[in-house]
From TrEMBL:
Cofactor(s) required for function per UniProt: Zn(2+); Mn(2+)
Name listed for the protein in its UniProt record: Cellulose synthase
EC number: 2.4.1.12
Organism classification: Eukaryota, Viridiplantae, Streptophyta, Embryophyta, Tracheophyta
Domain of life of the source: Eukaryota
InterPro entries the record matches: Cellulose_synth, CES_Znf_RING, Nucleotide-diphossugar_trans, Znf_RING, Znf_RING/FYVE/PHD
Transmembrane domains' residue ranges: 849-869, 881-899, 919-939, 968-991, 997-1019, 1031-1051
Enzyme class: transferase
Residues involved in UDP-alpha-D-glucose binding: 343, 349-350, 379, 520
Length: 1071
């Protein structure tokens, strides 16, 4: 179709189309050009009128219908033309029907559907655009010269005009050849419909649709739609025209009580602290002061954590609409390309088989193969990883067609073959069992080859590794080696066994030299950004850890429902998926799943400005990683008034002048970008630009812009040119050899010197948790993020099972937060005046200060033991009013947790495990992170804690019982021992002093039991199995007995405590 077809409206699935020409073009076709003289309903001749003329039932479009069908339609049908939906007028000689008396000569379109006065646009639009009929099937057959232009008018989307969508990408452009039908532009769109050649099918479809609409209307068809933002009052028109996703707000019956109890808890906490501050414990003033300081800190932390969860939402995607909009039958897919990053370092700690499964799941993803490129970053330059990836690329030629043929999930072979489910469910292909067995055998042979490579790599030759041709492996020296790139699969080769193309697979190992700061994972990810930009330059990026495989092959499509949505997608910087894990014990002893964070906190952030970036399972917009600001929302034009004073007009003019200058500069930048994009990579070389700058001011300004871009992005003309292509795509005229050469250049170790990489561009440096910092910078630029939770988990990974590994993982996260808190990027003082919302800022503040809670938490967990050993308490004797505030606060705390679980769907087990590990991690990993961060930032001392492993067995979850001693275990172990001693001492003291001592003891015991119950999972991890006690526990038991004996002697519980001697009269007369 060409550019003058006008507005096209219809549905690909329903085979519907309406074309309205623009003003100035020809009107309806003359009747003489219609070739059909046969009734399009019954197949008989059209016949003649009573006057002997050709019978024409419809004077609007002259659709061929015989007199019999015309009369039947007026008497029994809906009295409208099957093609243009114009009401049939009574012709001479035809009997009258109801409606002719008052509607003679008038099109009765308003009453075609029985709408009342209070009808809304949602049902009307559905009625107008519905029909399973086609028009013009014979009308234009004999006219091959009809032009089929593309529409040049803005296209409709969700009832809004979107004038920057390419017409060929719009959902309303049909994927099949349809002859346009001229229509009268003055007539309403509802007067035109779709023709049919099957009267019975049309009538049945119409009746069913009317019944469906009536049922929808009677049951409240708009229930569940979000009435906020751009998603309100969505018309139920054809599916491709509707949005690709929608918000699902939490039910008001669940969220409103939750918000009310938060406010009540806030008020109760205010009265509680008023009492605590105004009523000190005079006999235990130090204990009272410490407890009040800790409680105030906990209250502030609770506020920072609670209020970002004020507006939780859920989201729903429509993958079918995405396909209708961007994947039209008979045309190349218009879905956006995506570059997928997989990062790995040490193959001995990150097994190659795990990385291979991740890569295989990427190559088999349900997405057009020409749109997918997989980049594997080997930051350890290990030949084992290289050889394993080579084996993986060969096995993928068999695995990928098997996955797509039988549509299996998940598409990582290790986990697919481990599934304990009925793998024959929904499988109907007769050869499935045979091919599955053959594929399982192929995979087992593949595993043997990978295991052989791993076994061979255990002993490194003295002269280093050599490749098959005898060349020394360039990465023999891990700290000093050149950059390496190997394209295993791509467009030029690597077809599967069926002869189909496979996605690109590229191995990348960036250059490393002594004396350079390579910035660990963040530096590796930035190198992948530059390499992918040179080679494929997809507009979107997805990064996953090497142990996170695609559990849902449609995960990319889920993300594209947000990224490619023409209304909301342009302001989205990334789409974050929740992390889900395999191989975790049923009870999740150490809260590895992080259910509370991913199902409560992240949904709350999604209702503000979006979730934080968690380091894996995230789809990015490439332009957002380049440090650009989010596009501004278009504001309606301001209305002017002649009644304003002249000085007001002058100020407005000045402001308008500044705006015009800014707009002109922006337009100049766009013009320069488009010019650069049109040129090929060789034409963009600096020497050619310098030649063109002589004597030309415009070219000089272009040269200045080029210099600024190279100062920002680095000295690579090809890469700089690729950054100007907002929609991605490789540069014209560049050969593969030149691109690979440039790719090697952009991963050199000195490329980032004196550039904005790691400061404003890409993954941000300065913290071991570069993920939080990177997402924070994007939100400060005004972008928003999206939290996507598909019904089938998008990605699954592995989590540490044993206690020591889990604590070290938490230590790394907490250390990164401390580094951010002590840097210039601290959310407390960074990013004001940008696009960061205040509730989002609160969440980032909470994410950076939570490790500091470990100090008051450790002190607060020590107080119960001190109170039991000294006989003092942190509060004076409670009055009735004080008891009321204490009781109210406890009730509010429990109610908040219960209502939070109610709206989020989180189970009580997951919630309680989260509470327990908050205490365990707080008094161990978070505490060490604070001191390690202070030493690293302030003194420049980088410390680390090593873990020595003790072998486990081969049973299920054997790693859960593996004991690894580390210094992180000392603080919680000490807390447990001290509180156990305090409980024994307190009970002994109460037994010795009588029943009057039991009353005050209960408060102290409750306080101490609160600590012990929260540390119970840690105690289980410390002890291990019941039938095997680690030696370290025996050592601690001896120390415990020694300390307890000394304290017992010091306390002397069997003697009564009194301030002086006890004097009583004996009754004897000593005189």
């Amino acid at each position: 179709m060409e550019a003058s077809a006008g507005l096209v409206a219809g549905s690909h699935n329903r085979n519907e189309l309406v074309v309205i020409r623009r003003d100035g073009e020809s009107g309806p076709r003359p009747l003489q050009q219609l070739s059909g003289q046969v009734c399009q309903i019954c197949g008989d001749d059209v016949g003649l009128t009573v006057d002997g003329d050709l019978f024409v039932a419809c004077n609007e479009c002259a659709f061929p219908i015989c007199r019999t069908c015309y009369e039947y339609e007026r008497r029994e049908g809906n009295q409208v033309c099957p093609q243009c939906k114009t009401r049939f007028k009574r012709l001479k000689g035809c009997p009258r029907v109801p409606g002719d008396e008052e509607e003679d000569g008038v099109d009765d379109l308003e009453h075609e559907f029985e709408w009342g006065d209070d009808h809304d646009s949602l049902y009307m639009a559905e009625a107008m655009l519905h029909g399973h009929m086609s028009y013009g099937r014979q009308g234009y057959i004999n006219n091959p010269h009809v032009a089929h232009p593309l529409p040049q008018v803005p296209l409709l989307t969700n009832g809004e005009m979107v004038d920057d969508i390419p017409p060929e990408h719009h959902a309303l452009v049909p994927s099949f050849t349809v002859q346009p039908r001229s229509m009268d532009p003055s007539k309403d769109l509802a007067s035109y419909g779709y023709g049919s050649v099957a009267w019975k099918e049309r009538m049945e479809s119409w009746k069913q649709k009317q019944e469906k609409l009536q049922m929808t209307r009677s049951h409240g068809g708009d229930k569940g739609w979000d009435n906020n933002d751009d998603e309100s009052d969505l018309p139920l028109m054809d599916e491709a025209r509707q949005p690709l996703s929608r918000k699902l707000p939490i039910s008001s019956s669940k969220i409103n009580p939750y918000r009310m109890i938060i406010l009540i808890r806030l008020v109760v906490a205010g009265f509680f602290f008023h009492y605590r501050v105004t009523n000190p414990a005079k006999d235990a003033y130090p204990l009272w002061l410490i407890s009040v300081i800790c409680e105030i800190w906990f209250a502030v932390s609770w506020i920072l954590d609670q209020f970002p969860k004020w507006l939780p939402i859920e989201r729903e995607t429509y993958l079918d609409r995405l396909s209708l909009r961007y994947e039209k039958e008979g045309q190349p897919s218009q879905l956006a390309s995506i570059d997928i990053f997989v990062s790995t370092v040490d193959p001995m700690k990150e097994p190659p088989l795990i990385t291979a499964n991740t890569v295989l799941s990427i190559l088999a993803v349900d997405y057009p193969v020409e749109k997918v490129s997989c980049y594997v970053s080997d930051d350890g330059a290990a030949m084992l990883t290289f050889e394993a990836l080579s084996e993986t690329s060969e096995f993928a030629k068999k695995w990928v067609p098997f996955c797509k043929k039988f549509n299996i999930e998940p598409r990582a072979p290790e986990w697919y073959f481990q599934q304990k489910i009925d793998y024959l469910k929904d499988k109907v292909h007769p050869s499935f069992i045979k091919e599955r067995r053959a594929m399982k055998r192929e995979y087992e042979e593949f595993k043997v080859r990978i295991n052989a490579l791993v076994a061979k790599a255990q002993k490194v030759p003295e002269e280093g590794w050599t490749m098959q041709d005898g060349t020394p492996w360039p990465g023999n020296n891990v700290r000093d080696h050149p950059g390496m790139i190997q394209v295993f699969l791509g467009q030029s080769g690597g077809l599967d066994i069926d002869g189909n193309e496979l996605p690109r697979l590229v191995y990348v190992s960036r250059e490393k030299r002594p004396g350079f700061n390579h910035h660990k994972k963040a530096g590796a990810m930035n190198a992948l950004v530059r390499v992918s930009s040179v080679l494929t330059n997809a507009p979107y990026l997805l990064n996953v850890d090497c142990d996170h495989y695609f559990n849902n092959s449609k995960a990319i499509r889920e993300a594209m429902c947000f990224m490619m949505d023409p209304l909301v997608g342009k302001r989205v910087c990334y789409v974050q998926f929740p992390q889900r894990f395999d191989g975790i014990d049923r009870h999740d002893r150490y809260a590895n799943r992080n259910i509370v964070f991913f199902d409560i906190n992240m949904k709350g952030l999604d209702g503000i400005q979006g979730p934080i970036y968690v380091g894996t399972g995230c789809v990015f917009r490439r332009q957002a990683l380049y440090g650009t600001d989010a596009p501004k929302k278009k504001k309606p034009p301001n209305r002017t008034c002649n009644c304003w004073p002249k000085w007001c007009c002058c100020s407005c003019c000045c402001t308008g002048g500044r705006k015009k200058k800014a707009a002109k500069a922006k337009q100049e930048k766009k013009r320069f970008s488009s010019k650069i994009a049109e040129n090929g990579a060789p034409a963009y070389a600096l020497d050619r630009i310098e030649e063109g700058t002589k004597g030309n001011e415009t070219e000089k300004s272009n040269m200045t812009a080029v210099q600024k871009l190279e100062k920002k992005f680095g000295q690579s003309p090809v890469f700089v040119a690729s950054t100007l292509l907002e929609n991605g795509g490789t540069l014209k005229g560049a050969t593969p050899a030149s691109l690979l050469k440039e790719a090697i250049h952009v991963i050199s170790c000195g490329y980032e010197d004196k550039t904005d990489w790691g400061k404003e561009i890409g993954w941000i440096y300065g913290s071991v948790t570069e993920d939080i910092l990177t997402g924070f910078k994007m939100h400060c630029h005004g972008w928003r993020s999206i939290y996507c939770v598909p019904s089938l988990a998008a990605f699954k990974g592995s989590a540490p099972l044993n206690l020591s590994d889990r604590l070290h993982q938490v230590l790394r996260w907490a250390l990164g937060s401390v580094e951010i808190f002590l840097s210039k990027h601290c959310p407390l003082w960074y990013g004001y005046g940008g696009g960061l919302k205040w509730l989002e800022r609160m969440s980032y503040i909470n994410a950076t200060i939570y490790p500091w809670t470990s100090i008051p938490l450790l002190a607060y967990c020590t107080l119960p033991a001190v109170c039991l050993l000294t006989g003092k308490f942190i509060t004076p004797e409670l009055s009735n009013v004080a008891s009321l505030w204490f009781l109210s606060l406890f009730i509010c705390i429990f109610a908040t947790g219960i209502l939070e679980m109610r709206w989020s769907g989180v189970g009580i087990d997951d919630w309680w495990r989260n509470e327990q590990f908050w205490v365990i991690g707080g008094v161990s990993s978070h505490l060490f992170a604070v001191f390690q961060g202070l030493l690293k930032v302030l003194a420049g001392i980088d410390t680390s804690f090593t873990v020595t492993s003790k072998g486990g067995d081969d049973e299920d979850f054997s790693e859960l019982y593996t004991f690894k001693w580390t210094t992180l275990l000392i603080p919680p172990t000490t807390l447990l021992i001290v509180n156990f001693i305090g409980v024994v001492a307190g009970v002994s003291n109460a037994i010795n002093n009588g029943y009057e001592s039991w009353g005050p003891l209960f408060g102290k015991l409750f306080f101490s039991f609160w600590v012990i119950v929260h540390l119970y999972p840690f105690l289980k991890g410390l002890v291990g199995r019941q039938n095997r006690t680690p030696t370290i526990v025996i050592v601690w038991s001896i120390l415990l007995a020694s300390i307890f004996s000394l304290l017992w002697v010091r306390i002397d519980p069997f003697l009564p405590k009194s301030d002086g001697p006890l004097l009583e009269e004996c009754g004897l007369d000593c005189n």
